[in-house]
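Onboarding guide, step 5: your first structure request.
Type a short instruction followed by the sequence, for example:

Predict the 3D structure of this protein.
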Amino acid sequence: MNLFTERVVAIIKQIPSGKVMTYGQIARLAGSPRGARQVVRVLHSMSKKYKLPWFRVINSKGELGINDQETHEAQVLFLEDEGIEVIDNKRVSLEKYQHHPE
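The system replies with structure tokens like these:
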């Protein structure tokens, strides 16, 4: 696993319950400001193996970025179970719920 991927996995594992982070925010913290798509790749390929809280990662607009309906619904349920309000079944207030570890 390369250093960027290791950092991404570590950052995602540290997102606390009830908080979210964006793909771009994670990429910046991991050392690649333009690596948001790589964060998506890491989530897609490594969430199960590393038990990542994938559902806590959203896009920079605060929107849930998953198109698959079943997975989208699971993400909404997981977020709501942690006390995060999902607006219109698709958006989260970054002002209220975004985690800022830096």
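Each response can be followed by summary notes, for example: The beta strands are 21-22, 57-58.
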